[in-house]
């Protein structure tokens, strides 16, 4: 396994709390782009926000830490973190 692949991590995050209508998705995109993370973020019908983030292990760890605190105008009560197999994601989109 190459070092680049060893250092790659992909996660699915689901945030609960006051996470919709507070700029969470836009701030997630800003954070992801600043950290060089690929993936996407979207509002779910159940009031939560779902994200897939892939990139350098340390960068993904920083993104998870940011997601636990959430945006300035909202808050995160719970953050589910599930590791996934990395895949060919490029860029970070708001869906």
TrEMBL record:
Kindly give the Gene3D superfamilies that the UniProt entry links to this protein: 3.30.70.100
Active site (catalytic residues): 25, 43
Q: GO molecular function: any one?
A: acylphosphatase activity
Q: What is its EC number?
A: 3.6.1.7
Domain of life of the organism encoding this protein: Bacteria
* Keyword Hydrolase annotated: yes
Q: Which residues form the Acylphosphatase-like domain?
A: 10-95
Tell me which Pfam families the record gives: Acylphosphatase (PF00708)
Reactions catalysed, semicolon-separated, are: an acyl phosphate + H2O = a carboxylate + phosphate + H(+)
Q: Which of UniProt's keywords are assigned here?
A: Hydrolase
Entry similarity comment: Belongs to the acylphosphatase family.
In Swiss-Prot or TrEMBL terms, this protein is called: acylphosphatase
Q: Which organism is it from?
A: Propionibacterium freudenreichii
């Amino acid at each position: 396994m190459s070092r680049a692949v060893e250092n790659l991590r992909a996660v699915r995050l689901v945030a609960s709390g006051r996470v919709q209508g507070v700029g969470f998705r836009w701030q997630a995109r800003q954070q992801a782009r600043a950290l060089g993370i690929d993936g996407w973020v979207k509002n779910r019908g159940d009031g939560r926000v779902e994200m897939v983030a892939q990139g350098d292990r340390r960068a993904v760890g920083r993104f998870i830490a940011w997601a636990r605190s959430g945006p300035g105008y909202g808050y995160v009560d719970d953050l589910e973190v599930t590791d996934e197999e990395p895949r060919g994601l490029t860029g970070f989109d708001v869906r």
